[in-house]
Amino acid sequence: MASLAFTPTPTPKLDLFHSKAKPTKSYNKVIRKPPHLSMPQIQYKNCQSNLQQSYFNTIFSLCGQGQIQAAFKILTEMDRRKIPIGPDIYGLLLQGCLYDRALFMGQQIHSRIIKIGDSLATNEYLETKLFIFYAKCHLFEVANKFFSRLSVKNVFSWAAIIGLNCRMGFYREALMGLCEMIDTGILADNFVVPNILKACAALQWISFGRGVHGYVVKMGFDRCVFVSSSLVDAYGKCGILEDARKVFDNMSDKNVVTWNSMIGSYVQNGFDVEAARVFSEMRLEDVEPNQVTLLSFLSASANLGAVEEGKQAHAIAVLGGYELDSILGGSILNFYSKVGLIKDAELVFGMMLEKDAVAWNLLISSYVQYGQVEKALDLCHLMRLENMRFDSVTLASILSACSIIGNIELGKEGHCYCIRNYLVSDLAVANSMIDMYAKCEKIADARHVFNSTMNKDLLLWNTLLTAYAELGVTGEVLKLFYGMQLESVPPNVMSWNAVILGFIRNGQINEAQDMFSHMQAVGIHPNLMTFTTLICGLVQNGFGNEAILVFQKMQECGIRANPSIIISTISACTDVASLQYGRAIHGYILRHDLLSTIPVATALADMYSKCGNIDQAKRVLV
């Protein structure tokens, strides 16, 4: 491929394979290193005396040790003694400031250069040094001004401006910079390419990324572990996992960054099992995981509910001496919360050195999720004592807790807090408020919150739909159902489920069945909740035979029944005529190992008793 084509906007043609500059034989083999303070490579060309050389050596040594202040004092002494100071010394000092990100000291050196006059201020070498210094210090506007007036732009300056654009999130500008760089005859090296791949991943410009991959292979940069790791990461973030794995497998040398890129790619795309497998391979290769590895593996373990694997990651963190900061500690806390090990989550929370809002919210939401509402509210109180502000996530958890315990007064206090802190426009908070008011039987307040929320999403519509459906107010349910479609919010399966529930709660069984048929006609596939709502509703309203037919339909759809559906369907088999269906359900129970569930076994025994088969009922309970 000779050019990098990408969408959606047209860009200048980037010819990587036919640029003006031709790679030399040695270029493919050289891996550029950034300019370091290497004594044998630096010669002070303007040295006219041993004294000058001595000062130069001292400044060089101090800069190498990170003692910029001391080096600057030597510069002041040279100035006082009127010893000539050339561009090389100022460049040396700027390089030292760059390594330490000593912005203020670098600006002082810049001021000295300007005061001396154009002889230094317009020096090509110093202009480049100043540009790279400001670029590394993230002073975007200043760096851009320097870059625009550079008379000669080399690979170092291009690498700096492209890297700066990437760090600032200006990914399009970074890619346009590559295009211009290539057009001026300068080849991108293996320091530029990783930033370009980062930009491609951020913009999801996979075509551009593939072109860069071709350039990498042509120039021989695929032998560079950092470039190949960037390719794995870029393909992974674009969801092209097959290509990411091919690059990964073809790498002869892999470092921890490479492994992290592959594991992270799998986790980001929901392939948690594969991520865990790659982590195991990494351990077998004796590659020591770092904090980034553990963060990805903990996420995969949490998603899989893999308790032992997550505990292993925690143990590695402890043995590795990693501090439980807000990032790693929060990740471990998230794992224990997701797998339901609340006691372990509490211990991790207590040991965390830094607790940000994310950590507090994780434990609070875990308490709410597992019904420990009082603990959740106590932790919210403690959070306020620690002068931590409630954010939208905290408020959503508090409001959920209020809906569980039916504490309308506390819920109203939460609502007032949201108004005072401008959180009412947050959709997650609004949704929790609607749910809280509905469950506290304040449907009018729930509707008020709904009406006052701008830019309603599907979840918000469904929450209010379900609230009215629970009350059996089918008129309002249908108004909302058709109103959301007029607002260009297409209903999903949860919306249809709410309408079916509303009809059933109002005793409108025929209408519920019609809606069930209609949703399938328009291409919406019923899920487990749909069948649970309909079957249980049919049985409760005395439509046992219809419930059995719906159960059969569920089997045809390949949906596995839960205990609620099984108990309801069994209870519909109350006479000898329906016993054959009961026996079929008994077989289903045995095949899916559900007989150990006491309510299921009790319902089955009750069915056999009502059908006159007492012996079979006794055998079920044995």
UniProtKB/TrEMBL annotation:
Keyword Secreted attributed: no
This protein's record includes keyword Heme: no
Coiled-coil ranges per UniProt: none
PROSITE patterns in the cross-refs: PPR
Pfam families in the record: PPR, PPR_2
Swiss-Prot/TrEMBL PPR repeat ranges: 255-289, 356-390, 457-491, 492-526, 527-561
Superkingdom in the source lineage: Eukaryota
Keywords of this entry: Repeat
Molecular-function annotations in GO: RNA binding
GO annotation (BP), single: RNA modification
Protein name in UniProt: Pentatricopeptide repeat-containing protein
Native organism: Populus alba (White poplar)
